[in-house]
Each structure stands twice: as C-alpha cells, then as structure tokens.
Amino acid sequence: MADRRRLIVVSNRGPVTYGTDEHGELVARRGAGGLVTALAPLVTRHDVTWIASAMSQEERELAASGPVEEQAGDGSRYRLRLVAHAPEAYRLYYDTIANPVLWFVQHGLWDWMVDPRADLTVAWRDGYVAVNRAFADAVVQELDRDPGAAVLFQDYHLYIAPRLVRDRRPEAVLSHFVHIPWVGPAAWDVLPSEIVRTIHDGLFANDAVAFHTERWRSAFVESCGAFLGTAAAEGPLVTACPISVDPEEFEQLARRDDVRRRTDDLFPARPERVILRVDRTDPAKNAIRGFRAFGRLLERRADLRGKVGMFALLHPSRLSIPEYEAYAAEVERTAAEINERYGTLEWTPVTLDLRDDFLLSVAAYRDYDVLLVNSIKDGLNLVAKEAPLVNARDGVLVLSREAGAFDELEAWVVPVDPFDVENQADALEHALELPLELRRSWLASIRAQVHAHDLDAWVAAQLAVLDRASTMRA
Amino acid sequence: MADRRRLIVVSNRGPVTYGTDEHGELVARRGAGGLVTALAPLVTRHDVTWIASAMSQEERELAASGPVEEQAGDGSRYRLRLVAHAPEAYRLYYDTIANPVLWFVQHGLWDWMVDPRADLTVAWRDGYVAVNRAFADAVVQELDRDPGAAVLFQDYHLYIAPRLVRDRRPEAVLSHFVHIPWVGPAAWDVLPSEIVRTIHDGLFANDAVAFHTERWRSAFVESCGAFLGTAAAEGPLVTACPISVDPEEFEQLARRDDVRRRTDDLFPARPERVILRVDRTDPAKNAIRGFRAFGRLLERRADLRGKVGMFALLHPSRLSIPEYEAYAAEVERTAAEINERYGTLEWTPVTLDLRDDFLLSVAAYRDYDVLLVNSIKDGLNLVAKEAPLVNARDGVLVLSREAGAFDELEAWVVPVDPFDVENQADALEHALELPLELRRSWLASIRAQVHAHDLDAWVAAQLAVLDRASTMRA
After folding, report:
1. Which secondary structure element, helix H or strand E, spans residue A275, and what is its range?
2. One digit per residue, pLDDT tens: chain A, 474 residues?
3. Within 13 Å, how many C-alpha atoms sit on residue B46's CB side?
4. How far is B298 from chain A (nearest CA, A)?
5. Which of A178, A283, B343, B384 could form a disulfide linkage to B339, CB 3.0–4.6 angstroms apart?
6. In what order do the strands lie in the sheet with B370-373?
7. Is B233 exposed, middle or buried (0-12, 13-18, 19+ CB in 10 A)?
C-alpha cells in the first residue's frame, strides 16, 4: 500500500456506460474502447477519481447528482465524476472538431484542396473549448478536494484542458498521454494558426506529455518549436512509451469455447490460406489500398486464385461524419469490384464482415496465416500486438511503417508502405511464402516482446514519468 | 556573336502552334503559356533547336516530315522539331500522370485518403515513360547532328528523359529547369516507390537541375538523399534562381488603347475598392479559400459592404481532369454563396470573369487596390511580378508564403497562410487599410526588384549554370 497513489484520470469516454435495464433500473456496463481497457489497472492499484463525459440521458441525470462511487470488474472501488455537456456543444466538439478535424490532421487524412470543415471558428469556440472548459472545471473541483492528486489527461479530446487548469491551479501535477500520431508543422498548417497555437499551448501547460513512439514525440517537440517558439527545455517532460495489452487476458480469451465456436462461423468455407485484417472502417486504417493490393496479387499470381482469401473484420465507425460514411461505401465498392473480377462460384476473394463482436475478432486472431495492418498512420495499433499472442497457425504480420507499433516490432514483420499498393502486393506475396521456421521464430519474438513490455509495464512507466515530473516541479 | 551558343530546348509545348487558316493553309501562331514566353529570348540570341510535342493533326503531319526552320516574332530563326506521340500514350502521359499525379503531388493536392488515380502502373509505363522515350530519341538524334549542343529540359513533363539520353550519350551536357514546387520525401511517399525512384534518378542524370527558389532546391536535395541514397556531391549541380518577366513588355502593354478600353468592360460599376485575383481555375491557386476569406471580412466589417468588390479573373483550365472540373464547379458555388449572403441590388461582392483574354488581365493589373495571390503552393507565380509593374492605383500585393515569389518579395507584401481563412481575412483588411505612403513605397520596391532581376538576368543565369556544369564535366 506504500505506493498507492491518488490519481485523477480524465478521458472523454468513461470506464463504464450507464443504461436502464428492462425494469427501468440504472445499470452500468464496462465501457468500450482500448483506452479504457488500458487504464483499468490503475483503478485496481490506486485511489482513482475518473472524470468523463456523460454520454446518455441516464448519465446526464447521474452527473447532476455529483460524483458516485463505482466498482470495477475485480471489485476495486473508484470515484466517477461524469461531466454533462450541452448536446450541441458536445456535437461540435466530437463530431466537428475532435474526429474529423484533429483525427484527420493527425492521421494525414486532411483534404488539402478544399477544407473538409470550412468554418471551424464557431465549432472550436462553442464546442471544443466549451467542453474542455467543463472538464477543466471538474478537474479544479477535484483538485480542491485533494490538491496532492496527480492528473492524467488522455488523448486528443482534451488538448486545451491542461492550460485551463494550470491557469487556475499553478501547483497541480498535470500529465497528458496522446494516443494518436503527432505530426509536424506543415501538417498543422492546414488549420487556423490561432487554433494550432492554442492546441500546442494547452499541451505545453502539462508537467509531462507522452506518446507511443519516439517519432510522435520528436514531431511534438518540433511543432512546439514552430508554433510556440519555445525551447523544449522550458516545457513539459516529453516522453515516448508504447502502450501494450495484458497477454494473459488474450490467452484466456483464446481458450474460451465461445471463441472456438466462432471460428467455424467466421470461415464457412475456409480457403487454404487466410489473409486477415481487423479494424474500424476508419480511412486511417487504409482498407481500400489493402484490397487493391490483394487484387494486384491475384492479377499477377493466377495460381493463388481459389486458394487464398482476404477476410476483413471491419467495425463500422463514426458514420455520422460524412467522410466516414463515404469511405465505408467505397470500402464495400472496392471489395465488390475485386470479387467480381476474380471470384468464382466456389471462391470469394474478399469477405467483408461488419459484425461488431470482439470474440469474433479473437477467433480470427487464432486462425490467420497473414495479418495485414497497413494503416496510413496509427498511434500504435493494438491489433498488431493482440493477434500474434493467440495465433495458432504461425501467422505472419504485415505491418505499416507508419504504425507506432512498427518501431517495436519491425525485426519480426514484413514492412509495408501504406500508399504503395504494389509494395503491399509484394509484401502479401512474400508473407505467404515465408518459410515455416522463420514464421515460428518471428511469432515467438513478437510474443516475447509483448510479454516483456506488457500493459503493467506501460502503466508503471507512466507513473514513473509522473514522479519525475512532480520532482521537477517540487 | 562570340558567346552565341548551340542549345537544344526541350519542352512539352512548343513556341508556336500550327493550325490551318480559312483557305486550308498551314499557319503558325505564338504558343501560349509563361514558359514559352520566358524562353523566347534564347531564340533571338542563340542557335536553338526546339523539341516539343506535336499537339494537333497538322503538327503530327509536320512532325513526320522532319525538323523545320521557324521564325520568331522578331525575325530570328530557329530549328523546330516536333515529336508525334500515339494519342492514347499522350493522353496517359498528360491527363493521367503529368497533371493530376505529378502536379497534384508537387502542389500538396494529393488526396491521401483514397488515391485520386488508383492504378498508375499502366499509365506510367505506356504514357509517361513512352512519351519521355520519344523525347529522348529526338534529343539523341539532335545531339548526333551537333554533339556540342547543350540540352535544356523544361518542367515536370520530362523528368525521366535525361536518364534515357544520358544512358546513350554519356558525354552530353544536360540540364533541367523544374518550374513547379519540389516536395519532401513524405509527400512523394504517396506514389509507388519504383515511380518515385525513377523520377529522381531521371533528374539525377542531368549535369544541372534548377528551381525557382532555395526551398524547392533543398527539398530536391533532401528527397534525392531519401530515394537514391546518394550524397548531393555525387549528383548534378542543383541551383535556385527565380524566373522573371520582361518589364518593358508589360509597360508597353499597359499603354495600349485596347487595354485601356477593357478597363470599363471589366468594372461596369466599379466599387470604391477592388480586390483582384488572376489565375487559372487550378486547385493550387486556392480561389475557394480566397472567396471565403472575403466572406469572413464582410461578416465582421459590415461597413465594407457595398464599397469593396472581389474580382476573380479565372481562366478555366484542364477541365478534362475530373478533379479540375469539380473544383471549378465548387469555385462558382462558393462565389454564388457569398453573393447570396452579402450582395445587394446595387452591389455584387464577388465577380467571376472566366474569359481567357490576356489583355483583360493586363487591364485588371492596372486597376486593382489589392491583388490576392494565396496559392496552396506555387513554383513562382508570375502574376505577383507582372501586375505590380503596371498597377496605377498604388495597389497592395497580398502574397502566399507558399509561392516561390514570396522569397523575393516578402519585404513589400502582406503575407498570407494559404490554409488559414481567418488569416487571409485579416490580411485583406490590413491591405485595404495600409497608408498611401507605404503602399507607394512597397510598389516601387517590387518594381525595382523585378527590373533588377528581369527575364534577361534569369536567362543569363541559366546559361552561366550550363557553363559551370560543362566545365565540371570537362
């Protein structure tokens, strides 16, 4: 208990979502998303207050009655403070700024010809800034209750809250983990300079800012130099440490009967070799170029037709945003085009599976020959760590050089350039022909890496950074 | 006559175009485009063979009968060799590769989410490479006739011809001027790596490669390092020298009666103040964000409504390419939107003029109060040099930081960031309010700069580079 800490975790989504059951009773369910899973260990080992947005009518009512005590899956207790936002402010914050603007800019998806979002000024002020202010108010109230607690802001929804807290509580220990890529000054230049400056200034108000890889870290240092004109020494401690998963959790999942049963369901007529991808239908995940690469491979290697199938488990995502809707339609169109061109009565080249079922993903993880992760950019990509843990076919990972996980795993993967369709076709061909011995050795190395650098190690590293930052402040 | 040189100029478009008159006789007309104008002085002072694509049926027939002797406007004679290409090869080269792919990549217009041109391999091989090979064949034949002649390749249509010539004539003196921006490795990464390597290798085969500004020059050195892995010292002499205009030509034009008459035609009801832009309807010119910026200015400064008008002389361009057609439609839609929102019966905020009439542009150059050049990227931008030469209203130049001309003129312009609409609104407001004394002094400084660094000086600099390159080779 000696190193039990007092932490205030701040993220847009909370660790539970509340709804009502068939009797009209309020029930809590574990929240979705990798971030919430990743931060769960904190609750077990420390005294945590978690601040998150109220997402539903039930949560909005709960927010009004103040913080509640919640219980995690393992019985540990934590304090949950939900922040209710005006629905229009939340819509501007989430659907106009955070996802299409910040996510697009930071994943190299911005349309430079015509801005996808033309008039940002109002959405920024009445959405992003307003919601960040509400979060900052909640953090200040929690700090007033416990001034010694350290604050852990999470991700791109909350870039400016740290500045808003810092201005009111200069002595607070504030840290931020950015889970998506950071990009250099030229990429940020597409946004109004005042918005860009405010984002950098907001993060700069932390004692510590962390990213998944050295690449994103150094891009942040560079863009702070460009937009704030400050030397890194004056600002926060900026570190890089890749997030990870709990290997035991995945190994247990893979042994479950309901996972094994799903394998048959997944591949009703399994081809000799399976190329798998598991993503959201996010343009950053680059499914279309992956399908085209598979088409190119079938074009040049007629002998593979009928023997190899590409299975894409794609969870529809953010369809309220027009670009996502258009992209998802284009994904389906591209798959259909390849199937029409190369498919036969007995064999479908590309199978799209849009069911959002985590256990189905785990079943697929067990059973691929080649796993394709060809993201345009990716903060880390957890699939690249999860799937090899449970794969039972000596499967090969084909991994984008632009995924954060590449820096850790590159010695044991077939690398791909996300924009180069020919290169991806070459990589798939190479992966399918890799000798068994090498496949086994690579898979074992990836597993050893993930075991040695697991989620516990990541959490410990984040707390160590907090200690260094607090010491520097003291 | 002592320094009269033997030159082989190679450009896609030639200095004349041939057609037939009403009697069916072949007639030559001066070719359009800034590049041809810029290179015209070479013909007067040197022995020039000009190699260009045959564009029409007449030119194709002319090409078949071999090189012809032509006469320039001032009576000087030069040799013209037209190269006929198969129509489908030319279409792939020009409409698929050179304009939408190379131009888009080098102007920051590429759609990173879904490639605007998905299958480049065939168009590259059967279009761009085939046409470059035909140019290289013609250059080799001309070099065999006169091995001491120096070759001057022009622009992005001919990146790989130098390598194809070099492999067959190792001793030839080859140079290349790239008239559009060069971009760093990350921007090139959107294309297949083999194409990118071939482009860089093609330019690397020259003795000298030149750009309009130091920025494009250093991006080229950087991308050669990334894609060829070679130190700059091993490759061509790489220089930067901005192209210019002939000041006397523009001063004479501005005095012409038919130019003066066009002023009335241009502004039937001239508002107090005129903001002008003169461009092709190319997405790189950024007309839409310019209109939006003017809309923002009218929103915040109601006192300017009715008093200021934006006049956009936009020459429709490359409409056979779908992205250009869509962009041109969006340009019109955006202008209409602003006119609907702010216009009155007496006053139209934005006037679009799509007539392609050079004398009309010169008339407009004389008569603006503010000239807006807000290009996303621009190799140089000649309008920024031409218009101030003849302006008669102490007009202010608002100039994109991303135009090559910015490096020369920045001390005497209001700078703008091309993606930042608010910043452009601020700049227009600032330009309209600039005191007379400063406007006069800035305009005089721009004119002095263009006079001191005119087209003759640029041509002389290019020939001096050729001399250095020949000496290094000897």
Report:
1. strand A273-280
2. 447 899 999 999 988 888 888 888 888 877 766 777 788 888 888 999 999 999 888 899 989 989 999 988 788 899 999 999 999 999 999 999 998 899 999 999 988 888 877 778 899 999 999 999 999 999 999 999 999 999 999 999 999 999 999 999 999 999 999 999 999 998 998 898 899 999 999 999 999 999 999 999 999 999 999 999 876 567 899 999 999 999 999 999 999 999 988 987 888 789 999 999 999 999 999 999 999 999 999 999 999 999 999 999 999 888 888 889 999 999 999 999 999 999 999 999 999 999 888 899 999 999 999 999 999 999 999 999 999 999 999 999 999 999 999 999 999 999 999 999 989 999 999 999 999 999 999 999 999 999 999 999 999 999 999 999 888 876
3. 20
4. 15
5. B343
6. B350-353, B308-315, B273-280, B370-373, B396-400, B414-416
7. exposed
Residue B474: the pLDDT is 66
pLDDT given at position B50 = 95
Paired strand residues for A9:
A50, A152
**What value of ipTM does the predicted structure carry?**
0.76
Task: From B197, B249, B264, B257, select the one nearest B228 (Cα to Cα).
Answer: B197
Of A400, A414, A287, residue with least CA distance to A351:
A287
User: CB-based contact (8 Å) between A283 and chain B?
Assistant: yes
Cα dist from A357 to A32, A315, A354, B51, whole Å: 12, 9, 9, 63
Whether the CB of A417 is below 8 Å from some CB of chain B: the reply is yes
Nearest CA in chain A to B104: A113
Confidence of residue B1 (pLDDT cuts 50, 70, 90): very low
Half-sphere exposure of B233 (CA within 13 A, CB side): 0
Q: Is A292 on the interface with B (CB under 8 A)?
A: yes
Q: DSSP secondary structure string, B440-471?
A: HHHHHHHHHHHHHT-HHHHHHHHHHHHHHHHH
> Of the candidates B111, B419, B422, which has its C-beta nearest A121's C-beta?
B422
* Helical pair A257-266 and A358-367, crossing angle rounded to 10 deg: 70
In chain B, residues 328-357 whose CB comes closer than 8 Å to chain A: 330
CA atoms within 13 A on the CB side of A16: 23
Closest approach of A119 to chain B, Cα-based (Å): 9
Tokens representing residue A317 in the block:
């995502």
3-state secondary structure of A315: strand
In A24-178, at which residue ranges do the beta strands (DSSP E only) sit?
26-30, 47-53, 68-71, 77-83, 150-154, 173-177
Distance separating alpha carbons of residues A106 and A321, to the nearest angstrom: 17
Which long-range CB contacts under 8 A does A22-26 form with residues at least 24 apart? A26/A58, A26/A62
d(CA B349, CA B291): 10
> Beta strand A308-315 with A350-353: parallel, antiparallel or unpaired?
parallel
Q: Which two tokens stand for residue B440?
A: 């006069």
Instruction: Classify residue A107 by its DSSP letter.
Output: T
A28-43 confidence digits (pLDDT tens): 877 766 777 788 888 8
B109 reaches A (C-beta below 8 A): yes
Token digits of residue A406: 């590449």
> pLDDT, tens digit, for every residue of B437-453?
999 999 999 999 999 99
Length of chain B: 474
CB B223 within 8 A of CB B182: yes
Task: Give the position of tokens 């996303």.
Answer: B376
Sort residue B471 into left (φ over 0), alpha (ψ -120 to 50) or beta.
alpha
Nearest chain B residue to A105 by CA distance is B112
Q: B121, A422: Cβ pair inside 8 Å?
A: yes
- How far CA A130 is from CA of A10, A21, A83, B280, in Å, comes to 16, 32, 12, 41
Instruction: Look up residue A68 and give its two tokens.
Output: 């509640």
